[in-house]
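Quick bug: Methyltransferase output formatted oddly.
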Amino acid sequence: MTLQQQSTSEAESYRPLVPEAQVKEITELRRALGELGGEEGEQTVPFLGLTLRVPASVMTPCPVSPMLGGAVFAEVKPGDRVLDMGTGSGSLALIAAKKGAEVLAVDLNPDAVAAVRVNAELNQVGDRVEARESDVFAAVEGRFDLIVFNPPFQWFAAADYADVAGTDAGYRALTRFFREARDHLTEDGRMVLFFSTMGDVAYFEKLVADGGFTHKRVFTTTQPVLDVAVDFTVHRLS
Ligand SMILES: C[S@@+](CC[C@H](N)C(=O)[O-])C[C@H]1O[C@@H](n2cnc3c(N)ncnc32)[C@H](O)[C@@H]1O
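Here's what came back:
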């Protein structure tokens, strides 16, 4: 079964928890963003004092990414063992490493894993960042003081690896993440997660509540995405 076939059946069986009007708005946003198309070729972008090389198939940090990067920087303590789940270009992994953490950066997308290795060397933290392909926790062993995750926000079927940055069919990955995260945290472990109203916030909040975590919303901002006002929130769980 191809990624797209598997993804389509998972997405079709998902029933969103947000009201129907929001489902319509989110679905329309996905269609409109899809029409814009993606970047062509590798880009070199600045991010909070770092320089990132980002292949076309990997998510480029967006206007709200510095808010999440700042929250990660504030949360990391030197010497922490940090897991960057869904690392993309490695932006959050590198921020944590710059603060003195030992970081494992994982992603389903092999191009992302290659990009993190390049970016870690480029930003002089190659000795503190290990990158590995993993479907959620499948290739992750051990426990971490801090897990960070900026997940794909939407639940639709993904067309390819590049699309997996924005959509997680039926929230299969997010659901597994919450089911297994506790087993990968130290006793005082904490998590910094990102989510937005581009996705099913009600389902995200349910996963948080069902996980029994202490939950704090660190920061929320509202930004226009095309002509829609979207809330982006940094969550701290412990
Ligand atoms: C929204 S992007 C975040 C990228 C980066 N962390 C950032 O903040 O710029 C989500 C990332 O999760 C990855 N991803 C999606 N599904 C995954 C899975 N099942 N296991 C691991 N990574 C996954 C995507 O490939 C993508 O790089």
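Actually, after a second look the formatting is fine. Residues 3-237 form a domain with the Rossmann fold fold (CATH 3.40.50.150). Closing.
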